[in-house]
């Protein structure tokens, strides 16, 4: 388990993650920092879900800034895949049994009752809270399907967010589709790593992903730096008044700290 969140139910806890594979193994000008990439891809750690939970893929980005000030950008698609290991499923059920036993004990302690009297308790509150525990804090290996989070990440020298997002979504569709793509997955990965060049300054580049073409654009020398992040999301997350306040602080050259989960 990653972190001290044992008070949470097992499906709400986070677990230690690790890098399963990366390609290429190393690049001289951009050495692969396994610990940093692991932490930035899954900042909350590995998480589990069941068929009753929302498992829509999520995309986020990160920046690695080195001592010399150079930056590389990471774009991560997190999705959930079914757990096929019976050992892990059994371990999850055991964790739930232990967790529920502790919860029942705390309910009993708060109402000063024994397990025998709890079943016949006339206190509606205790009966209701216990029923909720049984309904929501449970995992049945014979009834529920267990899923675990997984990431695919693309690390780039420039923040081509929209192009990276489209490529990762297409790659994810190819991985999960019943119908395999026209070429092996390795072909598309090799293509974007070795055959798709950076567009020249002031030019656009169109290349083919797995299913559809993708376009990325690079500003010219006299233009503003590349900012491929949608402003609409900033307004949705911060709100108009907060954004105006942040912008005012920027103009006044104040120190700004944004804190987020």
From TrEMBL:
Domain of life from the UniProt record: Eukaryota
Keyword match Signal: no
Pfam families: DENN, uDENN
Keyword Disulfide bond listed: no
UniProt KW keywords: Guanine-nucleotide releasing factor
UDENN domain sequence ranges: 1-261
A GO MF term: small GTPase binding
Protein name: DEN5B protein
């Amino acid at each position: 388990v990653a972190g001290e969140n044992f008070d949470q139910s097992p499906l709400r806890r986070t677990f230690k993650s690790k890098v399963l594979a990366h390609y290429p193994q190393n690049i001289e000008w951009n050495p692969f920092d396994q610990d940093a990439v692991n932490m930035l891809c899954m900042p909350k750690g590995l998480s589990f879900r069941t068929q009753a939970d929302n498992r829509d893929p999520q995309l986020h980005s990160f920046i690695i800034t080195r001592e010399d000030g150079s930056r590389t950008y990471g774009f991560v698609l997190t999705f959930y895949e079914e757990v096929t290991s019976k050992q892990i499923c059994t371990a999850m059920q055991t964790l739930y049994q232990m967790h529920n036993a502790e919860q029942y004990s705390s309910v009993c302690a708060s109402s000063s009752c024994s397990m025998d009297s709890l079943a016949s308790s006339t206190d509606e509150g205790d009966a209701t809270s216990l029923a909720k525990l049984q309904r929501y804090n449970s995992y049945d290996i014979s009834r529920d399907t267990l899923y675990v989070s997984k990431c695919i990440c693309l690390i780039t020298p420039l923040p081509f967010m929209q192009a990276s997002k489209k490529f990762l979504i297409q790659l994810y569709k190819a991985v999960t589709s019943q119908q395999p793509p026209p070429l092996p997955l390795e072909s598309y990965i090799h293509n974007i790593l070795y055959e798709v060049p950076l567009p020249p300054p002031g030019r656009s580049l169109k290349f083919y992903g797995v299913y559809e073409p993708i376009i990325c654009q690079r500003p010219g020398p006299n233009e503003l730096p590349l900012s491929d992040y949608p402003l609409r999301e900033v307004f949705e997350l911060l709100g108009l008044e907060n954004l105006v306040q942040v912008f005012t602080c920027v103009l006044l050259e104040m120190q700004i700290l944004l804190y987020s989960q």
